[in-house]
Each structure stands twice: as structure tokens, then as C-alpha cells.
Amino acid sequence: MPTIHVTSHLRHVAPAGPMPVDAATLGGALDAYFATAPRVRSYILDDQGRLRRHVAVFIDGELLLDKKDLGRRVAPNSEIYVMQALSGG
User: Fold this and answer.
1) Which residues contact 77 (CB under 8 A, 6 or more apart)?
2) pTM higher than 0.85 for the full model?
3) I need a surface site. Which of 2, 38, 87, 88 has the fewest CB within 10 A?
């Protein structure tokens, strides 16, 4: 099963440690994660169901560039990292 890891800044609303989820897409993986941790949804997705501007997702070490691409396929052994994106100047 794919495994979701979230950054420590979400620990107050997210389960501790990585969580295996049963899903074939990024969106399915997130939905499965949110079923266990519903409070974290609003920190990761906006009101239109897209990744928030300041959220970065890495799937197997590759940054997801298109924040609308929740249909992206994930492998059974994928590692999905969700973290706060850094910005500024």
C-alpha cells in the first residue's frame, strides 16, 4: 500500500507517523488519509479540492508540479510526502 507522510507542522491535527493507505491515485490516497484524519483536509486542500498553494507533495521523491493532478497514479509501494512549501524572497 502507498504510505503518506506529513510534516511535523500538521502533527496537531494529523496522526503521528506514516500511514499506509489503500489507493491507486494521489487523490484516493489523500481521501483514505482524510477518512482517518478529517481535520487535516482543510490544511492540505482548498475549498475546491485542490492542493493549497503552500503545500508541496512529493511522490517517490518527485515534486508534484500540477496541484490539480490528484488523479496521478501511485504505485503500491509509493511514498507520498506532504509538507509545507517554502516561499519568500
Assistant:
1) 2
2) yes
3) 88
